[in-house]
Amino acid sequence: MISPLLVLAIGTCLTNSLVPEEEKDPNYWRNQAQETLKNALELQKLNTNVAKNVIMFLGDGMGVSTVTAARILKGQLHHKPGEETQLEMDKFPFVALSKTYNTNAQVPDSAGTATAYLCGVKANEGTVGVSAATERTRCNTTQGNEVTSILRWAKDAGKSAGIVTTTRVNHATPSAAYAHSADRDWYSDHEMPLEALKQGCKDIAYQLMHNIKDIDVILGGGRKYMFPKNKTDVEYRMDEKAGGTRLDGLNLVDIWKSFKPKEKHSYFVWNRTELLSLNPDSVDYLLGLFEPGDMQYELNRNNVTDPSLSEMVGVAIKILKKNPKGFFLLVEGGRIDHGHHEGKAKQALHEAVEMDRAIGQAGAMTSPEDTLTVVTADHSHVFTFGGYTPRGNSIFGLAPMVSDTDKKPFTAILYGNGPGYKVVDGERENVSMVDYAHNNYQAQSAVPLRHETHGGEDVAVFAKGPMAHLLHGVHEQNYIPHVMAYAACIGTNLDHCARATAAGSPTPGPLLLLLALLPLGTLF
């Protein structure tokens, strides 16, 4: 048992030793504040250009507590205390809050939320690309209730479009960009009930290849859902579970290839080496499926077979930006969510840090003058950290005290519920007896559940680029794609673009500024 006095003494020592010398000078903080004020005043000069490009980064499950913890981790990975570090998203000038509830759920899931921030319409839990008139699992409530996404609006406007994810490409978040399904779990026809198949509903992988046939870039996992049942996987040849799942016998990769014009250059790749060896200048369409299911956690990633999220984003942008009309790109850091569900905070936070690298990669390849970048989450998790930890305390470390009830130490990171609930000899597990810094350590939780749950609080929205100032205050989540479409002059709300063109303005800047200040009721 660790002595409470020893823990407190160590905490006091750390607190004194980890205060950077410059921070002891009041002028350090005054000068920092004045520089921040100067930058804030510059924001009065609003960017009202038309967004040629729109990039949306979606951190699945990346609530505010996850953002803060990832910031500290990023700093500590660079041998700094961590708290003072800036994430790439921290540098964005405009921040809002998004209300994440589904039409039938106070605490949402990733499908109904994806429909909101991609299609502009709130929906029921578990459904994608359909309105709230569609009930989960009921195929016969789908027809006539389909809603289209900003990816579709971008393609209709002649832009290129891409999807990059660390989950399956037919998972909840990406599927709302192209599919209309009464159930997010209908990955292939193998997962669908016979009744739904008889009623004519199609699985999500099928819809990926058929609904919008000219998505320019698709990168992620989900290989097994594209091939006939029992077809051996190209990578895991001895693993039957990695093989194809389709009951209809279709090879969707071949179908994807057949839909592409013969004069265009289309490539299917399944590993990092193939991806990075491509010359983006000679690629028109790219399909990359790097795992049978979800991609590996960043901490577990095979550097030969699996590309990182930032590498996939880099390749995607190089291909998409060739279109003179611009592009829309959806990027999902999807396994932040999975790490939290498993109670593995270290996995979740390293996923968040990698997504931040991808945000930086995208920022280096584009300009805020013509590219609107939005970073947000679909929902939060019951993840927290606290315990009066001293400055620079490892984000995965112990609090500097023991419980005044059971006299045992505890980690700063805890979950409200989840698989980390453990009782040993009738008492809470003593975490000093386990390796709480292990990659797969499951942080303690208050309530035992096999899978930790989502949280229901608002999530942050970070924005930079043309019309980013329209993301401000507290918004309904479905407001987000309306702003992105307005900024890019795509979708149905185009009056401001037409008037500016008629007035002879090459870019609708001044008029967009005027219209941006009008009440929203006059716009939609």
UniProtKB/TrEMBL annotation:
Cofactor binding note from Swiss-Prot or TrEMBL: Binds 1 Mg(2+) ion. Binds 2 Zn(2+) ions.
Protein name (record): Alkaline phosphatase
Natural source organism: Marmota marmota marmota
Biological-process GO terms, alphabetical: bone mineralization; calcium ion homeostasis; cellular homeostasis; developmental process involved in reproduction; endochondral ossification; futile creatine cycle; inhibition of non-skeletal tissue mineralization; phosphate ion homeostasis
Keyword Lipoprotein attributed: yes
Cell compartments where the protein resides: Cell membrane; Extracellular vesicle membrane; Mitochondrion intermembrane space; Mitochondrion membrane
One Gene Ontology MF term: phosphoethanolamine phosphatase activity
Assigned protein family: Belongs to the alkaline phosphatase family.
Reaction catalysed by this enzyme: pyridoxal 5'-phosphate + H2O = pyridoxal + phosphate; ATP + H2O = ADP + phosphate + H(+); AMP + H2O = adenosine + phosphate; diphosphate + H2O = 2 phosphate + H(+)
Membrane topology field: Lipid-anchor; GPI-anchor
InterPro entries: Alkaline_phosphatase (IPR001952), Alkaline_phosphatase_AS (IPR018299), Alkaline_phosphatase_core_sf (IPR017850)
Residues the entry annotates as binding Zn(2+): 60, 337, 341, 378-379, 454
EC numbers for this chain: 3.1.3.1
Gene name of this polypeptide: ALPL
SMART domains, per the entry: alkPPc
Binding site for Mg(2+): 60, 171, 173, 332
